[in-house]
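Support case: user asked for a sample of complex input and structure output to validate their parser. Sending the pair below.
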Amino acid sequence: MIRLLDTLTNEPQELPPPPYDVKLYVCGITPYAGSHIGHAVPVVVFDVLRRYLEYRGYTVRHVTNFTDIDDKLIDRALQQGTTVKALADQFSAQYLASLKRLNALEATVYPRATEEIGGIVMVIAGLVEKGFAYESGGDVYYRVRQKADYGKLSKRNIDDLLSGARIDPTELKDDPLDFALWKGTKPGEPSWPSPWGPGRPGWHIECSAMALGHLGEQIDIHGGGADLIFPHHENEIAQSEAFTGKAPFARIWMHNALLRLGAEKMSKSVGNIIGLDEVLDSHGADAVRLFILGSQYRSPVTYTEEALEAAKVGAERLREAAMATARGTGGGAVAPIDAEQVRAEFTAAMDDDLNTSKALAVLFELARGVNRARDEGQNFRPARALLRELGGVLGLTFAAPPAASQEATPFVELLVQLRTELRAAKQWALADRVRDGLTELGIELKDSPEGTTWRRT
RNA sequence: GGCGCCAUGGCCAAGUGGUAAGGCAGAGCUCUGCAAAAGCUCCACCGCCGGUUCGAAUCCGACUGGCGCCUCCA
């Protein structure tokens, strides 16, 4: 039984047994800038969740949104002399391309706020009608004090929030804590018609409307980064449950810890970001996944070059085993690896709130089993197949790490060929000079009965 | 100030009552013409103090150190 820790109740929750169609909503991004390595965390975590659910027999309806209209986009577009749409399209496409490189499964739907205005307006209108929201000067605000349970997700008390000095009281709001569902248009901003005049949606409402529209009034899992717990998800619960009159809005709330860089979290506002594509270029998808999955998703991971490098070497180790080929015939007895036992260990780890760290330990031990079986001339293919199967659940590609440059390839191959001939002639000293020279240039050679292979290090 | 989290070997990281998974790095050995890869072996008593218990990294309390949210943020 899969148990996932729910942020709201702070207790493990379970899903109905399969066959069951899991309704999963994962908060996406506001596409106003390029992605950094921190964005890869929820992507990988929820991709693994999805792959694991499917592995266990569930079907998953997965929705991830793009909030393609908001203050940052408007500011950035103005600043760059472009349109909000052009900017949002550019970074949305870039984000999706990065997801693909990360080997993340595509969501069932990627709704965009600007294409869901009708649904958003409908939800806002419903909230106004029920007295949970009010129009004021062309804006519409959600009345936070209307429902007593506001703050339940983030464990906040309304009056404690009030004492926080950083809340900016707006004269248009009845209460300083009320938040905007709809913002009346200002000159030069994109706007859409509404019963309250032209304007655009506020930040939180689009997710409620999209979850409602694409998944229904009550969903199974709602996920995102821990930084979204307040105010975003708190407000989403409030709106959604007020609108539908049904609770819980989500059966399970899952939040991944934020990636840190040195002492601080990695964040655009702090400015300490490392581009996602750059890391993918230099280390490859499996290394990024191993880096992220090396710790449980609720524990914060700290980005360091050393940790990424360690993950890269580890990925290479798994790849070597997953791609292992026989030495000699490899036709001996089947390796004594109990596939059911290994699967059981892997599954037990994953069932326990996605303990990917422990699941990876199972994979590494399995990799050792594959290698040992091969070294001993046993039939290691079933074990190798199992490694590929379980690695696939974690979204590993087992692909060769990226090569920095292809230009040198013909020259390297010429040298490798030359060395092969020298070795055939037992010209060891000369052969070694070639290999040592290549090693210094970052080319590692590997001799085997089938010939010499090489790779960049 | 409010809410919450964390502290395990050189680095990363599992483990929440019965005596420390795994990865990276390091040492030795095997294999290899030499290497690489791989295999084998070795490498921790769990921030500090006190308490509960037959027994604690694991429960309780205090302390120290670090972090997150409360404001846009994955």
